[in-house]
């Protein structure tokens, strides 16, 4: 495999299309960088207006890109301007919806006509740019939609149509913009409790039945159902809502916080790491200023890229900050005040001279991760909130529009890391709330809670078993993956089904080079033997004959050995297990009825996170089935494998735990009705030989290939996602043991296809 920058016509080529606003471009660029790190050729498509803004803010060479990471632009359909400000959102939404498809299709045509880049194989588009779906469908390629708001806000958007059906929107007239009406209880959005109308994204607050934003949101959310998958920049923070979304959308994956995931995968000093997306020039000297401050001593103030306020509100915020007596870093965009330049009074500057820094823009991710920042006065834009949670920083919330009201509600009431201030800004309230945030008892509790969420965000992104790491990999494998249709006798394969050693960006990768060397040297052998049987893999074995010395299937070996060698003989007593087998599990199985026990064993090498172990445990517990579970001492990566005492109490009388067992005998025992396995080949073959259907959780090496054939070709398995959730474990194990699909799998496993191999 060559480097990313070697032209390879087989390389997958993703086109990434953000909505043309700062808060959408930033996370989409992170998705693009992550896909590039996975081996994709990337084309990133801005609007012409934002393309030019980026060149002005970051320099004339900022978008030169790399041979395998290129920037393109299409017109947004609005009148041309060179003013550095966020465009009118309703006008932008209407224009992109009506005017962008034709130039986008022309861009794709031009890309596919080139001979120096791979053809476009997939699209990742902002959920608000669904015109791209039409182009993807025309080309017959998959498209993943990226909804950049929080899951809670996206869930609210998905139900906008019901507000119209229920007569809650549009409002009859502006008299409905009262506290009484906005306090209307909304109790019918799944997994979102204690909501009021005021907590719903603000586009619902219109008196116009033809309101652009109301219609735009309903149209875009409905069109989302045509996507191959949906990704969200969130994590286990919003688990229940994401689960509810699964019933109304294509597969939904949490892949955030994206800035943490990108930090894990991409070095900041690399070519892709240096690519930026800020439409304003960052004043990095604020980091040096923060370095001089004590931990948790600075209030960071930033209202994002779109929020505007009146000159009076700016003044009230200023004197509230001054009155708090705290040090603060305040980002004041030139266009922060509606209709005029943002200017603070000279008296304020004099009053706060030795305890403040003002900037027009800053590197916010680094600011919120800085130890001196103890609180954040924010507009509750989702990127800002996620970066604050990831930094363990509590918030004072002043939501402006769109999804920010929903984010504020969850921030304050559900996640307990925020305090809201009224829209009618008063300096006395600002001062009071900031003092409470930085020094008060409530502020301390919020900081403790923020630290909990910070740890969860790290868990999701910082190791290979983290939920967001696994989910991103699943999106790549399941929904954006390259078809592999050129291996003889192996049909319907995708790159995800190939042994995992192929997934490297290093041309000198040890395992990749090792396998190429060893398979090449196999041609020098007198013959090749395989532990399989002809009826199972006949066509593949025949295809191997044309490229190797004579190939013979001589398996399943354990059945042939059992036929030829008595267990009580000297040779029969020779063993090879590196763990001591606990034979008492066979006595336990003898007490169980036929096909009643789930056997769980992930082999000798597979490791998982402590969280995944717990999810497997509670998923098994919830099935109410008897189970035999082999838990090696080293099953959890970097830690001892320990399951909760509550689980042991809950499953008392219907489980046996073992550190190792005689697996061949277990899988041939009549009590075993199903096998939860990593799909190592020995395990898969022993399961097939015993007529036992499988739930498959492949880990690495050839296990992905075994899983593919087990589930799709031999029809004796069902795969569960790498991001282990107890609900899925429960559902799939129940289906395996009692469901219609499980019944068909059992019949297939018992069909006697291997009887003739060792008779």
Automatic annotation (TrEMBL):
Coiled coil: none annotated. Pfam families: UDPGT. InterPro entries: UDP_glucos_trans (IPR002213). Keywords: Glycosyltransferase, Transferase. GO terms for molecular function: quercetin 3-O-glucosyltransferase activity; quercetin 7-O-glucosyltransferase activity. PANTHER family: GLUCOSYL/GLUCURONOSYL TRANSFERASES (PTHR11926), UDP-GLYCOSYLTRANSFERASE 85A1-RELATED (PTHR11926:SF774). This is UDP-glycosyltransferases domain-containing protein. It comes from Eutrema salsugineum (Saltwater cress).
């Amino acid at each position: 495999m060559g480097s990313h920058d070697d032209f390879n016509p087989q390389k997958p080529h993703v086109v990434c299309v953000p909505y043309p606003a700062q808060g959408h471009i930033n996370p989409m660029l992170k998705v693009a960088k992550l896909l590039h790190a996975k081996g994709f050729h990337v084309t990133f498509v801005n609007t012409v207006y934002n393309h030019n803004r980026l060149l002005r803010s970051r320099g004339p060479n900022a978008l030169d890109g790399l041979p395998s990471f290129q920037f393109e632009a299409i017109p947004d359909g609005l009148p041309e301007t060179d003013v550095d400000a966020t465009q009118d959102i309703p006008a932008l939404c209407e224009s992109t919806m009506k005017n962008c498809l034709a130039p986008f299709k022309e861009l794709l045509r031009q890309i596919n006509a080139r001979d120096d880049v791979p053809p476009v194989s997939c699209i990742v588009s902002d959920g608000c740019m669904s015109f791209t779906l039409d182009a993807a469908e025309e080309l017959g390629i998959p498209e993943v939609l990226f909804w950049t708001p929080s899951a809670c806000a996206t869930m609210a958007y998905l139900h906008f149509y019901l507000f119209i059906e229920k007569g809650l929107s549009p409002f009859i007239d502006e008299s409905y913009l009262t506290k009484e009406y906005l306090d209307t209880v909304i109790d019918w959005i799944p997994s979102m409790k204690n909501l009021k109308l005021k907590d719903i994204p603000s586009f619902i607050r219109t008196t116009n039945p033809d309101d652009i934003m109301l219609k735009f949101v309903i149209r875009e959310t409905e069109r989302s159902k045509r996507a191959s998958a949906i990704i969200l920049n969130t994590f286990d923070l919003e688990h229940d809502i994401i689960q509810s979304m699964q019933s109304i959308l294509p597969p939904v994956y949490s892949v955030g916080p994206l800035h943490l995931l990108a930090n894990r995968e991409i070095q900041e000093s690399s070519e892709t790491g240096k690519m930026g997306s800020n439409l304003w020039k960052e004043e990095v000297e604020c980091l040096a200023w923060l370095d001089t401050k004590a931990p948790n001593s600075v209030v960071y103030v930033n209202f994002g890229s779109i929020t505007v306020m009146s000159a009076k509100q700016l003044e009230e915020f200023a004197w509230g900050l001054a009155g708090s007596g705290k040090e603060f870093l305040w980002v004041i965009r030139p266009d922060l005040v509606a209709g005029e330049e943002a200017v603070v009074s000279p008296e304020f500057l004099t009053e706060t001279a030795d305890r403040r820094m003002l900037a027009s823009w800053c590197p916010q991710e680094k600011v919120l991760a800085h130890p001196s920042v103890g609180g954040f006065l924010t507009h509750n834009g989702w990127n800002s909130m996620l970066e604050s949670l990831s930094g363990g920083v509590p918030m004072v919330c002043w939501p402006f529009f769109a999804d920010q009201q929903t984010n504020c509600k969850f921030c304050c009431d559900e996640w307990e890391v925020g305090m809201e201030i009224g829209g009618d800004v008063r300096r006395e309230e600002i001062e009071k709330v900031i003092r409470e945030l930085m020094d008060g008892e409530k502020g301390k509790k919020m900081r403790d809670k923020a630290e909990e969420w910070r740890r969860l965000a790290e868990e999701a992104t910082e190791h290979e078993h983290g939920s967001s790491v696994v989910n991103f990999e699943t999106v790549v494998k399941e929904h954006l993956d390259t078809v592999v249709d050129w291996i003889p006798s192996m049909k319907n394969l995708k790159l995800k089904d190939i042994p995992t050693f192929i997934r490297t960006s290093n041309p000198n990768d040890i395992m990749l080079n090792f396998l190429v060397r060893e398979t090449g040297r196999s041609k020098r052998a007198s013959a090749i033997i395989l532990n399989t049987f002809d009826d199972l893999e006949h066509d593949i074995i025949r295809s191997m004959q044309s490229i190797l010395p004579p190939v013979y299937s001589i398996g399943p070996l354990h059945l042939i050995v059992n036929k030829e060698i008595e267990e009580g003989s000297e040779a029969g007593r020779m063993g090879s297990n590196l763990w001591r087998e606990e034979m008492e599990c066979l006595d336990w199985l003898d007490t169980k009825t036929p096909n009643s026990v789930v056997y769980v064993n992930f082999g000798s090498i597979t490791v998982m996170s402590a969280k995944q172990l717990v999810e497997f445990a509670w998923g098994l517990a919830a099935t109410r089935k008897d189970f035999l579970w082999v838990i090696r001492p080293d099953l959890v990566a970097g830690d001892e494998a320990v399951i909760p005492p509550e689980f042991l109490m809950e499953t008392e009388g219907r489980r046996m735990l073992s550190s190792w067992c005689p697996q061949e005998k277990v899988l041939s025992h009549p009590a075993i009705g199903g096998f939860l396995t990593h799909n190592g080949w020995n395990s898969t073959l022993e399961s097939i030989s015993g007529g036992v259907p499988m739930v498959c959780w492949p880990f690495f090496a050839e296990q992905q290939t075994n899983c593919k054939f087990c589930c799709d070709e031999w029809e004796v398995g069902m795969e569960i996602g790498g991001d282990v959730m107890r609900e899925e474990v429960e559902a799939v194990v129940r289906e395996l043991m009692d469901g219609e699909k499980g019944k068909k799998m059992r019949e297939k496993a018992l069909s006697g296809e291997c009887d003739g191999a060792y008779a």
